[in-house]
Amino acid sequence: xxxxxxxxxxxxxxxxxxxxxxxxxxxxxxxxxxxxxxxxxxxxxxxxxxxxxxxxxxxxxxxxxxxxxxxxxxxxxxxxxxxxxxxxxxxxxxxxxxxxxxxxxxxxxxxxxxxxxxxxxxx
Length: 123
Hints:
Strand order of the largest sheet: 3-4-5
Largest sheet: 3 strands, mixed
Helix content: 40-55%
Order of helices and strands: HEHHEEHEEHH
Shape: globular
CATH class: Alpha Beta
Number of strands: 5
């Protein structure tokens, strides 16, 4: 069984490989930028997203504290993986609304929600 540091590093590499579908140049901040890593951001070249990866059973301080320590610019996201529980993705409510605003200008809503009961176009 890997120690917690190795478990975290392995999760970062796995998540980095998954993120390549969306951000082809993504790399871990450990390999690219100590300054970025020191800001609590685990990946470089992810556009407006600051992503922190956690592979622990209990988050010391919780999601709120992690998000609070992350950079003020960009959209901060925490991936939290727990054994046998899966992975959750957490962000602030305002950042979620910011993403919805970005999507509002695209055909996203009409593509995915047209015909869905209760859906009303925001345009």
